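#struct-pred

JT: dropping the chains for the assembly here, can someone run the whole complex?
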Amino acid sequence: MEINATTLWRDILAVRTKAPLVHNITNYVVMNSTANALLSIGASPVMAHAEEEVIDMVTIAGSLVINIGTLSKAWVAAMHKAMKKAHELQKPIVFDPVGAGATPYRTQTILELIHETPPSIIRGNSSEIKALVEAGIKTKGVDSTESSESAIEAAKHLSQKYGAVICISGATDHILNQEEYVRVENGHPMMTKVTGLGCTATAVVAAFAAINPSMMEATAHGMAAMGIAGEIAAKNVAGPGSLQVNFLDTLYSLSEADVHSHLKICA
Amino acid sequence: MEINATTLWRDILAVRTKAPLVHNITNYVVMNSTANALLSIGASPVMAHAEEEVIDMVTIAGSLVINIGTLSKAWVAAMHKAMKKAHELQKPIVFDPVGAGATPYRTQTILELIHETPPSIIRGNSSEIKALVEAGIKTKGVDSTESSESAIEAAKHLSQKYGAVICISGATDHILNQEEYVRVENGHPMMTKVTGLGCTATAVVAAFAAINPSMMEATAHGMAAMGIAGEIAAKNVAGPGSLQVNFLDTLYSLSEADVHSHLKICA
Amino acid sequence: MEINATTLWRDILAVRTKAPLVHNITNYVVMNSTANALLSIGASPVMAHAEEEVIDMVTIAGSLVINIGTLSKAWVAAMHKAMKKAHELQKPIVFDPVGAGATPYRTQTILELIHETPPSIIRGNSSEIKALVEAGIKTKGVDSTESSESAIEAAKHLSQKYGAVICISGATDHILNQEEYVRVENGHPMMTKVTGLGCTATAVVAAFAAINPSMMEATAHGMAAMGIAGEIAAKNVAGPGSLQVNFLDTLYSLSEADVHSHLKICA
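RK: done, full complex below.
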């Protein structure tokens, strides 16, 4: 594992050059903003959830995003199918357990999905990561109220159980698997006031996972690109509305100098 | 009932401090923009519509938004469930009858929903409010073509029948229950060129309803906050695109001085 | 057929004055941005997909958009119903075959829909247009990787088979029916980095089709309005985020002078 400004910039260029197709089965709230972020970073997004086509779609994709933000029965069936096929084809599956712990249905559905087909990467906030390990944890909706540090033990447990890279996002992003650990310190507090930037991070990680076989590197690179773009975009903005606009502009125009001067990573 | 710049500012601070969880069962068009507006005003949005989880979700929420903009069968069943549970737990239900009168299915579905569980607050434009009272009224899609004044009699009737606060939004917002009446004169004509700002108003009202037990005060405060933010945001914008961005920035940064200098209310 | 800056400006004014109701059965990703573009150009958008109401909705609409971007069974049934009713009432149907060729389900569903009820206009990128003619064509997701020229033969074939106007959009837009051919050269490369601007073009064409009985003129006017607005909007933007915002502002404020100085059409 090698993660630094040079490897990050190399992988940003690879995403821009290869424009990997990222297949998203994601929630209604973030479909538009996620697609725009994927286009801005240089990937090619597709959103498709019909049971009749998810297998064919994941077959031509470079990676698969599963985000359970606005669940319902038919979609869960499609998620199972797409995950199985991605696993069979050894394509990265990046899983976002939005609101885990908020309702029993949500937590149980997630556990069934990841138990049947272990994802390559799971990215959530601390409440969500903890809810997947401790039954009955109290979650307040979809926004986390706890520090990301508090979920590190739960993340280690999850990683061991599913063999996945776990990313706890927050002021600090903690990324780990069974042997390795990376901390990304980029980002800006106002990012929590733009809906779905967590979901966007998951999708951006999937773009990097489509072009780099190391899931640790892909996760760290994706989270760092998000954090750096958010940090630069937040300079001199008047609020979350302009942050969202600047964020896409910044992702699109991220330069080697931006990466080298802003990356705060501890590998 | 007391509604003035001081009470409005007090309640804006309360929303920012308490960050109430607002559970939205709303339409696809506005999910993203509504969630962003709720975050900007300081609330915590959650969108969830699965029959399997709406009861649990509304149980942890501070208020419930029901918006029938993009109806279908499964969603209506979830709306019924969520409304019943909210009523049982005495949590405010804010109802948005989008496009009432446009099709018989829409009008009938709304009437069934509010007949079974009367909402705390109903917010619509004049065509929608009238369509809920007069059968066969001619509605042109989801945008109103009539003045808000023309629906006051219908609103009084609705309020009596369901015991709800009714808000007719438009150039002037008329807010009434069986005993009280308030008029809010804030806002800007260009707001009608941004999709879903009516739906957003409903959700913002729900944020205030989660922290103030007076539904009249909550409705007036929510509509006034929307109108003031829209008015300030519309200054010097080039069109609806920048209005939408500035609107979120302004909601986020609304100050005591903004409230005192802009509020145009007649209580 | 007459298509030039004078006729384009005349039809922009007609859309602004008549504010035609455009009924969209479209995909989740673009609902918000499409509705905003329709409002900015001066039309009145409505999104409705319930089988129980699509017939009533299309009856009061000026035109119908069918966009299969995020397909599923229940929606396809509603599309069939709405298309049949629109055809019966002689209202323009504008069809967007998003991602045709990406999966067999997608291609087959499109062919079934347009075989049962031929649309008035089909707008797609070159891969999509070709996929509707040549079985087994290789499509990479929803973004086209080929020039629009390469699909002209396929477009002619489609036009003959279904009696529809075909628009192949790209750097150059090719618009044709069995007798006529128009080329629109407006637009900007960065428009491909904003999600759903193709879908938006389809909806804007539907706004023009609601006020001009010539489907060739409506398509050319719609595509030209999109291209001119995109071109003006792209001046001095920092990236796709601000392009999206400027694009709406520009559509809203498009002037006679803008149209006359920018239109690049070959009729």
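JT: nice. Chain C has one domain: 5-266. The domain at 5-266 of chain C is CATH 3.40.1190.20 (UDP-N-acetylmuramoyl-L-alanine:D-glutamate ligase).
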